[in-house]
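Recall from the previous chapter that SMILES is a line notation for molecules. Here it describes adenosine-5'-triphosphate.
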Amino acid sequence: MEELPAAEAESNDSPARAAIDPEAPVIATRALTKRYRGGQLAVDGLDLTVPAGSVFGFLGPNGSGKTTTIRMLMGLIEPTSGSARVLGQPMPRATRAVLPHVGALIEGPALYGFLSGRDNLLRYDAADPTADPRTRRARVAAALDRVGLAAAAGKKAKAYSLGMKQRLGLAAALLRPRRLLVLDEPTNGLDPQGMREIRALVRELASDGTTVFLSSHLLDEIEQVCTHAAVMTQGRLIAQGAVGDLVAGARGRLVVTTPDVTDAARVLKEQGVADVVVEENRVTAEPPDRELSDVNAALVTAGVRVRGFGVERASLEDAFVALTGEGFDVAG
Ligand SMILES: Nc1ncnc2c1ncn2[C@@H]1O[C@H](COP(=O)(O)OP(=O)(O)OP(=O)(O)O)[C@@H](O)[C@H]1O
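With both inputs in hand, we obtain:
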């Protein structure tokens, strides 16, 4: 990785200073609000804190205000009220000082299909007036290597799979050393293999100390790669914190494995167990406050063939359902 040119490091002394304080949040918003001209309240009083070094999942169904928040954080649109600081600097006022330290992949990379992956990056790098042309080739080669595209660098971008295109977009975001990477739905539209590649890359970048802020509507994905998460619905933040803490706040599910699901469900309800759901070969429910062995005994006494009985660990999805009282729409 190259160093920032000295002149630039000096002119951006506040972001550099923020780097010295590892406790300073990389993103902090206070009552951040955006109402669009049409009257739509897209983001409503957001207080977001993204710790340095975290992989932060910004979670919410489509239309919950994630992209609007990211646009405000990147200085692309003005908030209606409230404030946002990125790398310790106020946005959008400090956009020019902050953005050189931030790599962003928002709404898919803009690529020229008729150019090779390498030529796309050379072109992209050349569009950056602060990038030294003498080190351009080395910079592009390093970025291609980073995302595992070195072997495919000479291929035209239009021949790339969606996952490769997304990795090329990431390479463009990584042409310079970054303190923060902002990825808007980075695995959208990718097949499972492509998703795995992007996740592995995110973990690798994070292990180098880059803070990664990624939006997603996939709970599973957030649980797999993120250390921290925030949950949005309808423009409001309903929870944020370490993923482990969010999950710990949710109760798991009581799971009874049995071929006699109808009888098991009836007995559980008789025992006062709430939220009984019948599935194939198992019945799940809210774990009761009373002694679990009594509930198990009641099932056995009623002639239910209990093949398995226990409380499953809560997932982030359980936490989300507990927070919102509704399921998570993963469509789209
Ligand atoms: N330019 C705009 N003008 C008016 N309303 C907008 C504009 N952009 C977004 N909205 C509205 O603001 C709300 C939040 O949209 P936003 O795109 O921020 O959500 P999102 O969580 O990123 O969803 P998605 O994943 O679908 O992009 C939605 O109701 C959307 O219709």
